[in-house]
Structure formats: C-alpha cells, structure tokens
Amino acid sequence: MKQIVIICMGVLITLRADAQFKDFRFIESSIQSKLIKEHHFYHQDGTSMTIHFFSTNQLDSLLQMNNLLQKVWTEIQPVVEQPKYANVLKRVDYLYLNDSSKFRVKDYTHYGDGYLYTDGNARANKLGKDTLRVFLQTRERMGNKGTFYYQTFYLTFTFNEFKDMLLLNDQVIKDAIHAAKQHAPSSKKIGIYPSFPDAYHWEDNRWNKYEPEVKRNKKSFFEPDMNVGFQYVRNAWVPSAAVGIQWVKGSYFRERNVFKLLWEPHFSFTRNADDNLRIRRNDFITFRFVEYSKGENDKVYMPTSFSIGYLAGRSGNLYEKSTFKFSLPGFAYQGLCIEPEFFFHNLFKQFSPSLKILYNFE
Question: How far apart are CA 258 and CA 262, in angstroms?
Fold first, then answer.
C-alpha cells in the first residue's frame, strides 16, 4: 500500500511539472521532493553540480548529450552579460527540449551590494555564486503496457561566474554521472526508494553521506510494523491483521535481522439465529523473526523466518483455549509472503496445519 501511495505521489508531481512546463512556469517545490534522488558533486574551484533524478535511465539519457553547457552558454550569454546583471547574484532556469529551449533569469538584488576595497578605492564585488538549473525530460512508460508520459529531472550548477561553465567539459560531467549511477539504487521503479542524498568530492574521489542516509544505515533502530493476511485454517479462510513494533538490526536495504512483537487479531464471521452477521475476534500476541539478505527484495526468495504466537483473547470456538501457533520459512517477494503455519493446544493436541498469505507494509 505504501509503495502504491508513493508511486501515485510521484506521478502527481510529474504531471504537475509537465503542466507547468507547457506554460513555462518553473517550479521550486518539486526539486525538494523526497521522491527525487540527489547526488551532489563539488570541485575545488568552488563549482558544484547536483543531479536530481527519479530513475537511472534518466542518467543514461544524460550520457547521450554532448556539449550541453556549451549550448546553454551560447544561448544565455547575450542576456547574462548585460550591464544590469554585473555584480548581481542571479539564477538561470533553462528548459531543454529536443526541438527548442527556453530560459529565464532571476536576480537577487535584495542581497545588497558588495564592495572590495583596495588601493584606496571601493570596487563593486558580487556577493555569492550564480546558479544554473537545467530542466530536462525523459519519455517514460507507466507500467508494462501503460501509456507514455514525460518525466522531469534536473541539473543544478553553481559558478563564481556563469562563464565558468565552459571549464566543465563533457568528460567531467559524464564522470560525475557514472559515479551517480554506481551509487544509485539498482531498481528503476519510480518512487519505490526514498531519496539518497550524497556528496562526492572530485579531487579525492570520496563520498560523504548526508545525515538522513546515515540514520538509515545505522546498526540498529526501532520502528512501527503493520501487516495484513489470510490463513487457511480449520477448513476456512480467516483474515487477520497485525500491528506492533520491530527492531531492525543492520542496514535498512541490505543485510538485516528484524525482530517483531505484534498484536495479531484473527477475524471469523458467523450468523446467529436471526441470520444477523456476527464478527468474532481472536487476539494473538506474536513474536516474529526475519533475516534479510542484500538484494533479495527484488526477486522471489525464501527468507530465514519463523514466528510463534499465543492466543491472548478468545471469541467463539474456532480456536481452543491456550492455543499456540508457529510458522516456518516460506516464499517472499517484496512485501508479499506465503508460508506454512501450525496451530495446536495442550502439548500439540488438535494440531492443525494452515497456509498463510501475508503482506507487510514496509
């Protein structure tokens, strides 16, 4: 469910961006979206480059572009070198299209005027760095047989002066893109993964992780857990739900051990003498352990897992008093899991096998 919501949000942001491109109204909020991955690159001369992208195929499209900054500079030079923009902090938003291009210039005169005092004279000096934001689009397919749409992504540069962009040749930019590809999540699914902001220093080939990603990779943390399921037990399909807390030990997207303590109600439905539907609830307290390995979430696999539960609240005659249940490893794909489960009471009396289908909201 969470993945579906995130995908819908991503498509909504994309459609908003596409609509605003038609009217050429550059948007600020989408760049800050948590659905967009960000990679930051810094050069020792003060130049920086940030790639904002949704999927790695957008990085592939960047590799096909040649002389991008030379093209931008040729088009914006007559405007940004006008006298009114001298010593003024400014930003250029540049829309790159296959058959045309558009741009706007925004100045920040409210920052005030800066001066450099030397040899008894005060000379005007620009405060801060100039920013170039290049808007690009890729043609994406929605689902395997879905319709096509255009998805926006961004390149953001900072320069001491706009003419410094000529110092960034194609090879330097492509090296940065290759580094981003190697460090980006392998999945091309839009919006499934949260943002991965990183900083890369060209001069010493070193990545610096930002604090949110450091927290995701810390050795252990607690977070809520929730799942829904169906189990075939005692010749009937019984729906269930579970909420609780889990302790994650290890990297969130790599090898990790997960310990869960859950309240797990099972629901059964009967009709009374008046033919009115009655819902009966049986509450289990369940401990669950799952061991994940790197990359297993992207394929069908058999995780190391087991669970044990005790019937803490009973209604009806589906389960006996003091019923226990336990599960063994099954097959999983992303949040979906199919596993065998067994119910018994009083030292394995009335031992009942079942099959459980479980969806975990990760």
Answer: 13
